[in-house]
Amino acid sequence: MPRIRESTLQEHRAKTLDQIIAAAEAILRTGGRGQLTMAEVARRTNLARNSLYRYARDADQLCDMVMERHLPDWGRALDQALGTTEDPRRTIEVWTRTNLEQAGLHGHGWLMNLYAEQHDEQLRQALIYGSPSNPHEPAPRNDRSTDRQIQALLDFHGQVNQPLIQAWTALRPTDPAMGVEVTRGIVQSGMRLIDALDQELAPEQRQKRLTIIIEKVTACAKAVTATLTEGSTCA
Questions:
Q1: How far apart are CA 93 and CA 106, in angstroms?
Q2: How does pLDDT run along the chain (235 residues), one tens digit per residue?
Q3: Please, which residues have CB within 8 angstroms of residue 201's CB and are 6 or more apart in sequence?
Q4: Is the pTM of this model over 0.70?
Q5: CB 221: neighbour CB atoms within 10 A?
């Protein structure tokens, strides 16, 4: 059992939990979900495996903990930014900019793609659109994820993507999917650019490059909006 250096057992457990979540996040950032294992977290935190299981039952629960640390702030920032506009074109622009700003601020654009490699097509569609692709089908299930984890992902992705879906539905009522998918692709590419920024850069240099990425990618999203809404048919 690790030696307790804090003044109370509660403080020790809180510090250990922080270390565990930080280790899990580091693995997810660099290696993705496939690299997150209890063995690797135990190794990085210098914990015995049986000690680690006192804090999390499996790697899925570790994912829960990482998401719970980050997703609420992202969602609140998006809600606040989008509360200032009702114009669908402006919504797409603000949606793009805010998601990129949050990726740069928190450094967790990887969270948006955490389950992008899911082989369950129904779950993948639900993560993109925030609800099952067929409302008559049961809620998506996956043996690798807990029900609670899936619901947390669905809630967050629904919160994030619903404003974009509504904006494109207003602009292209017969075919909003094209606008949704292209816009999401642009933003995800921007997030990858942000994630690739050199962590050794001085803060002012990193901020300058981050600002350029956000401005350029947002401009791309505006251009796509203009292109896909040209003409009376919006074909």
A1: 20
A2: 455 555 688 888 999 999 999 999 999 888 888 899 999 999 999 999 999 999 999 988 898 888 788 778 888 899 999 998 889 999 999 999 999 998 888 765 566 556 555 545 555 555 555 554 443 444 444 444 456 656 666 777 777 888 999 999 999 999 999 999 999 999 989 988 988 887 788 989 999 999 999 999 999 999 999 999 986 444 4
A3: 209
A4: no
A5: 23
CA torsion angle for 99, 18, 117, 81 (degrees, to 10)?
-10
Residues in contact with 102: Cβ distance below 8 Å, sequence separation at least 6, in sequence order: 73, 74, 77, 78
Burial (CB < 10 A; 0-12, 13-18, 19+), residue 17, is middle
Enter the tokens of residue 126.
């639900």
